[in-house]
Amino acid sequence: MVDFVKVGAVLTFVGFLSVGSGILYAALSSPATLEQAQALGKNSGVLQGLGWIVAGIGLYLALFGSAKSDTAIDTKSEILLGRLPLRKSKFVCEKCGGDVSKETTRCPHCGSPLEE
Ligand SMILES: [Zn+2]
Predict the structure, then answer these.
(1) Is residue 41 located within the same domain as residue 91?
(2) How far is residue 80's CA from residue 73's CA, in Å, rounded to a whole number?
(3) What spacing in Å lies between the alpha carbon of 83 and ligand 1's midpoint?
């Protein structure tokens, strides 16, 4: 199983890195001729454009990954939920709101008949 959060984080990092280096590349270079300046602008523009795309994909993957169940956050919440005492049943009486087991036909709290 691919960890989208980690892949996304790396892609975002690489994307911003290429955007930053594209800007630096353009800022630090001193082109001698007009052709060189145009080529420089084109190169750094392409680099920045690709960088933003990669960063965007990375952010999307990170968000997509964090929505999946195998992320660190979900694992932590599962651990926390596991620490909570187990409830006997998820069924609740309609009349009094008390917990009732699935097997019983009457609420142990108010005695009202339970529907399936
Ligand atoms: Zn009840």
Answers:
(1) no
(2) 11
(3) 28
pLDDT digits (tens, 9 = 90+) for 4-56: 888 889 999 999 999 998 888 888 888 888 888 888 888 888 989 999 999 99
57 and 15 co-located in one domain: yes
Q: In terms of domains, do 53 and 92 share one?
A: no
Q: Tell how far the Cα of 32 is from the centroid of ligand 1, in angstroms.
A: 86
How many A from CA of 82 to the centre of ligand 1? 27
Cα 39 to Cα 54: distance, rounded to the nearest angstrom: 22
Residues 49 and 73 in one domain: yes
Q: Whole-model pTM above 0.90?
A: no
Q: Does residue 24 come out as left (phi exceeding 0), alpha (psi in the -120 to 50 range) or beta?
A: alpha
**How far does residue 93's CA lie from ligand 1's centre (Å)?**
5
CA of 88 to the centre of ligand 1 (A): 15
Over the stretch 84-113, which tens digit does the pLDDT of each residue have? 665 555 678 888 988 888 788 888 899 888
Domain that holds residue 51: 4-80
